[in-house]
Structures are given as structure tokens and as C-alpha cells.
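Our preliminary data section would be incomplete without showing what the modeling component actually yields. Below, a chain of 225 amino acids is followed by its predicted structure, encoded as C-alpha cells that our downstream tools consume directly.
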Amino acid sequence: MIWPWILGAVVVLIVFLACSSMQCRFTVVRKQQDDEIVVDLHTMYGLVKQRIAIPVIKFLNLQEGVNLKTEVVNKSNNQLMQGKQSNITHHTIKEAFNNFQLLLAHCFEFNSWFRETLRHVRCTEFYWKSNVGIGDAAETAMTAGMVWGLKSSILGYLFRFVQLETRPVIQVVPQYNMVTFSSEIQVLAKIRVYEIILALCRLLFRIMKVKGGLRMWRKVLFKAS
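Predicted structure:
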């Protein structure tokens, strides 16, 4: 019979794909008034490649907030899958915060689950360069030192939870006698697909431990979408 062979092949394929890694390359560039955020996702041994880009981040005013242009691109054929513009205002930030509080309240020890999940994330590339200048040479040197200390504190806290498998490249370049600030961050993080699946199952179990948790998560997530 051929069915056992087909079933076996399907099982082997599922295990093969589950053992693959999801790679996420996160790039943030800030130069003067220009900002760009790019997230590249690769998984299933390169069969799935997507890019989420925010090429336009423009502050409008206090009333309208920040305008974002978002693009989702299939990197396999460079085809634009989705593009939209949206505004982040004080109202949307407040609503997102309230929704997040609701999700936390309807999940058993969410912070514990989050830290446990981060332990399976491996950082294999980290680059963070900043150019700082505030006009005066002495004040620029002092500011560069403060930026360096802030970076060190942030990374020291972050890598308490994420596995660091590379030597991070951190640079702070003082730009004397000029007023400028630019920064570029590149991070490559990896996690196994089966670890994501297990994490989602553990999250679902924690949500179901709270009365009305599943109903509330479904309500908030569907409303946000």
C-alpha cells in the first residue's frame, strides 16, 4: 500500500520544516529628519521571504500625530503584497495601551511566558552605530559618552534574556563643531519554528487558565485587525 509511504513522507516533511529557523533581520536608520524601519523575515529554509518596510515616518502635528507608510513585499519575486498609510495619534497609543493591559490581565503570568520564549531567541548579528554632534566640542564629547553608557545599559539588560552568539559592534562617533544625530541599528535574530509553535501552545494554555481569557483575546485581536 502506498498510503503509509505518503503519510511517512508528510510526517518527515513536517518535522523537517519544524526544525527550520525563522530569521528576522531588523534594521533601523535615522538620518537627520529621515527615518526608515525594515524587517526581513526568512523561514522554511528560505522558501518564505517577506519584507515589512516603513519607508516614511513623518510627524504631522500634535492633533494628527505621526504618519506611517507601511509596505509588505514578497522578497522571492519583489512583489508588493500590501501597502497602506496610517496615523499614530495620542488616541491610538492610548487605545493600544488599554488593549495590551486587557491582554495581560487575561493571561496567566504573561511576563514569565515572554521571558521563557526569549531564551530560545539567538542573536547572531548586532550592529549599532550613532553619530552625535551638538555644536560645541566639549559638550559633544560629553554627550557621546552619555550615549555610549545608555547603549551599554540597554544591551546589558536585553542580553540577560536573549542568547548572544556574536560580538556586538557598538560605535558612537562624535561629530565636533556641528549639530547632527544619526543612528543605524542592524539585528539578526533566529528561533526554531518548533519553538514558536510550542511557545504559542504554552501561551494558549496560559490564556485558557484565566476565566474569559480566550474570549477577551479573540475580541481584542479581532478588533485590532
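The mean pLDDT is 84. The beta strands are 21-31, 34-43, 48-61, 65-74, 79-88, 122-134, 163-164, 169-174, 179-192. Preliminary results of this kind motivate Aim 1 of the renewal.
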